[in-house]
Amino acid sequence: VKLDLSRPLEQQGPLAAIVHKFCDILVRADHGDAECQRITAEFERFCRAHPGVVVVDPLENVRKVLNRFHQYRLVEQSPLASTEWVFIPPFVELSGTDPVADQAALRERGVHFPIVCKPLVSHGMKRAHQMCLVFGEHGLRDLQGACVAQQFVPHEGRLLKVYVLGQRYHLTWRPSLKDFVAGDLPTIFFNSQDVSKPHSSSPLNAHAVLEGIPMPCPRKLRFVVDTMRQQLGQRLFGIDIIAEKGTGRFCIIDVNNFPGYDGVSNFLDQLSGLLAELVGSELPDSGIDTSDSSDETPRRLNH
């Protein structure tokens, strides 16, 4: 059942679980949209008043990934940092208005050119996907406002999308930026969705070979997924990983709440199964077998 956020949620129940994509509303609320602020406040009030309703995922946990700088810090400070085979590229927040100060910030954090500059906002706005590739100090004049500068890591134009659904995860390879080096080159502006969507064709991802690539070590991937699940407190999220050229080390470049799950077969069935597990874990065991006596549980799981 699709919920109407303009009406009190109590009037639309009973609800056993709520699955939402609240990122856009949260971002607009943070930017002063009064209606989105009202919707967010009402939703949070409902969750506090009805703690037995399973929410996938709690808003306070979704907020952890809405700002790229904060999500990178989360990864940097997680147990992943203690391994030798996974890392997050050096990064720093830049003003985008003061090239001299921005260059000093890059030096202080040890971030080397080329750099990928990404908007601080990671969800909910069109500009969240508008990025640029800066090849040297001269390119800092081209920045268009506050951003996160992430050191570019050569990775042969391949991006591993990790879609997490509860305890499970699914993998798919996507095209990515081809390898670049620092130099006296003009800044390249691009939309990340144009580069990394399935079957996308762009001069920036030319010659990427995605067929026949062996999947990474399952044990290592499981550690990454479990660690990020614990850090985020989310059940539906995605991790963008590249493999560093020459070393094969995992490099986490982005984390997303409730991604598109493109290419994941039977996604809705798997989501229904996850909700059944979560709702079942919230209900007390009466000791009575009601599997054939009522259709109430399946009906409520549609919420």
TrEMBL record:
It comes from Amblyomma sculptum (Tick). One of its GO terms (cellular component) is cytoplasm. The keyword Acetylation does not apply. This is Putative inositol 134-triphosphate 5/6 kinase protein. Residues 1-61 form the Inositol-tetrakisphosphate 1-kinase N-terminal domain. Belongs to the ITPK1 family. ATP binds at residues 68, 118, 150-161, 176. InterPro entries: Inositol_tetrakis-P_1-kinase (IPR008656), InsP(3)kin_ATP-grasp (IPR040464), ITPK1_N (IPR041429). 1D-myo-inositol 1,3,4-trisphosphate binds at K21, H129, K161, N256, G260. One of its GO terms (biological process) is inositol trisphosphate metabolic process. It comes from the Eukaryota. Mg(2+) 1 binds at D240, D254. Keywords: ATP-binding, Kinase, Magnesium, Metal-binding, Nucleotide-binding, Transferase. Its cofactor is Mg(2+). The keyword Ion transport does not apply. Mg(2+) 2 binds at D254, N256.
